[in-house]
Amino acid sequence: MSRLDMAGKLEILADAAKYDASCASSGAQKRDSRGGKGIGSTTASSGICHSYTPDGRCISLLKILLTNSCIFDCHYCINRKSSNVRRARFTAKEVVDLTLSFYKRNYIEGLFLSSGIIGSPDYTMEQIVEVARSLRLDHDFRGYIHLKTIPDADPMLVEAAGRFADRVSINVELPTVPGLTKLAPEKSAPRIEGAMGQMRLAIEDSKDARRRYRHAPRFATGQSTQMIVGADDGTDRDIVGRAAHLYDRFGLRRVYYSAFSPIPDASAVLPLKRPPLQRENRLYQADWLMRFYTFTPEDVAQTTDPVTGMLPLDIDPKLAWALKFREHFPVDVNRAPKEALLRVPGLGTKAVNGILSARRVRRLRLEDVGRLTVSVKKLLPFIICEDWRPVRLTDRADLKALVAPKPVQLDLFGA
């Protein structure tokens, strides 16, 4: 390890960090360097697109591990103690220097820092916090910082991370407690949720202090987590239920889903192949329904297969729900409440808001609705307009075949 130069360490530790999906930057505090003071900005517009700001712009992040050495032996992790991989380790100062150097070259606009466990959880957390502290206080860095915290570390250290970071995340790792016990026996679901609960209280206390006192210290604006999909026996129904629990209990900004990928020298208890990537996509769609479309976890669970507990891969969960509960359709776009319109397949939140705004001044025709959505064809069985009524179309036995997306053969040499 000592023979590696900075470039060699960066190659290893940047590659090792690619398995962590929870690096979005939505909710970052707005900071800039106007007046000639400070370094960095969360509102800059240049750089490689790696993540998203609150206003929807893509920004670049330096995404690395402090080290890929670890004292834990989680079966699904390529950096586990027993894994035969090249190891490397940055010092806190090296990460600080890299971040500043990359920023000044206009490569990045922020830092996402995680780590394997070295020495002890407390020691590792101290090093992670020191990176953020040095950037903020020693160098007046005002760019985005996301820190991956360690639930086994001292709560004071985890809270210290929140004082310097825009976002923190604590991974629950797997959707079920039996799965975590089997594949990561050194980790504890109660400890993970306990750390999440403490972070939520700290975030809420900070928000309350900011409302009361203008100059109250800043704190992380939110926390997120990640679940590995397909490494254990957890079904989509289990995953959706766990995500809803986490959102409700800990006020998470996001739950990220990462499809399990087979690793070299894998344990015999792991599956031999990764789950379909479409499964990860369907879980994100289900997550979106719960967060923005008024769907409850029970609504989403009703779209899963009653035997396997899995979401359908050929159609999205919103369409699956509409096909199963046809008695709720068709919906009159000129009269239906917002909640009913959000259940219509093919209508997004922007389209629904456009309908609600436009129908205040006129009765909407099918042509008007078509201007608000990508394709009106998918909507036809589910809506009523001034000049359109589906009649018996909604009750057709072959409705799924009519509205489901058609398989497309990709062109290997297409542009």
Automatic annotation (TrEMBL):
<protein>
    <submittedName>
        <fullName>Putative DNA modification/repair radical SAM protein</fullName>
    </submittedName>
</protein>
<dbReference type="GO" id="GO:0046872">
    <property type="term" value="F:metal ion binding"/>
</dbReference>
<dbReference type="InterPro" id="IPR007197">
    <property type="entry name" value="rSAM"/>
</dbReference>
<dbReference type="InterPro" id="IPR006638">
    <property type="entry name" value="Elp3/MiaA/NifB-like_rSAM"/>
</dbReference>
<dbReference type="GO" id="GO:0051536">
    <property type="term" value="F:iron-sulfur cluster binding"/>
</dbReference>
<dbReference type="InterPro" id="IPR051675">
    <property type="entry name" value="Endo/Exo/Phosphatase_dom_1"/>
</dbReference>
<feature type="domain" description="Elp3/MiaA/NifB-like radical SAM core">
    <location>
        <begin position="60"/>
        <end position="286"/>
    </location>
</feature>
<dbReference type="InterPro" id="IPR013785">
    <property type="entry name" value="Aldolase_TIM"/>
</dbReference>
<dbReference type="InterPro" id="IPR010994">
    <property type="entry name" value="RuvA_2-like"/>
</dbReference>
<dbReference type="InterPro" id="IPR058240">
    <property type="entry name" value="rSAM_sf"/>
</dbReference>
<keyword id="KW-0408">Iron</keyword>
<keyword id="KW-0411">Iron-sulfur</keyword>
<keyword id="KW-0949">S-adenosyl-L-methionine</keyword>
<dbReference type="InterPro" id="IPR023874">
    <property type="entry name" value="DNA_rSAM_put"/>
</dbReference>
<keyword id="KW-0479">Metal-binding</keyword>
<dbReference type="GO" id="GO:0003824">
    <property type="term" value="F:catalytic activity"/>
</dbReference>
